[in-house]
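Supplementary notes for students who missed Thursday's class. We covered one full example, reproduced here. Read the sequence, then the structure, then the short commentary at the end.
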Amino acid sequence: MNDMEQKRAAVAAAAPADGRPPADAEKSRIAERIRQKLGSLSPSERRIARVLLSGAPTAGLESSAKLADHAGVSGPTVSRFVTQRLGFQNYAEFQQALRDEIAARVVSPVEVYRRQRVAPAEPGFASRSGAALADSVLASLESLGPAEFANATALLADTQHHVLAVGGAFSQLVAGYLVGVLREVRPGVRLIPPIAAERAAALADIGKRDVLCAFDFRRYESDTQVFAAAAKDAGARIVLFTDAWLSPIADIADAILPAHEAGPSPFPSLAPTVAVTETLIVAVAGALGEVGRAHFERFGGIADRWLRFWPQAEPGQDSRSGSLPPGSDH
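Structure (token representation):
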């Protein structure tokens, strides 16, 4: 058994029964809470934060003395950071919350499905499902860090930057949605499909004027992480959309927008991520102001003209048989 397997085994007993966040999930998302407070930390506290955010998530499972040594601060500084900044009663409570977080993070979707009973829908299922989704959406939006959200908005509203979006097996759908709406209010927005040649071509062109919107959720996908790391090395900024346990891309992201994934089923819900994405798009549109409005009207005029040219099918006629708009290739 290697070191990582030993660490996972050590915290497996603390895993929630269904693989979802524990009841005190707000305390479990330690990395998220640290990021929300980065702007108000002292230099010594920032050194502790860097150790906990940039290293292995198990760094906080060591003694407070060892954590202090890693960060180059005193033991009392660690104690004050954990209690006064993070709100825990003591270091032991902080460590238990961290164990819960790690345990939840390493539970696979297969294990979640295995543990949660899936039964036929009964009367009232739709309303219960809606309530669960609504709670998850609200919790996601309320937990967004103001500084992180403002930074993400500023990056996407700067038309000097090109915006690229990339996602995983399911989150690619939300990446496509972000691109589809955002390109209506600003230029230079592109979706990178999950095709090796397309991603290689994008990386060949990416540079300091680019912003990458990366969508990465449990099972954190290695190709998305490799792409994000290469983009960062090329000078791009990264806006990360992820879950409560934070993708490894968080270590290099310029703005992190986590969403809850709990829903009415054992399948991770994309609804909270869509809500976070839509909220960001509205904020970007507001930041763009008249520039965004003018682009939206220009885009809409072109789209309307395209639709007017596109032939309407007669009853029983295949609409694909008509001619294309002027200038289109056959």
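Commentary. Residues 1-28, 318-330 have pLDDT under 50 and may be disordered. The chain has two domains: 3-108, 136-291. If anything here is unclear, bring it to office hours.
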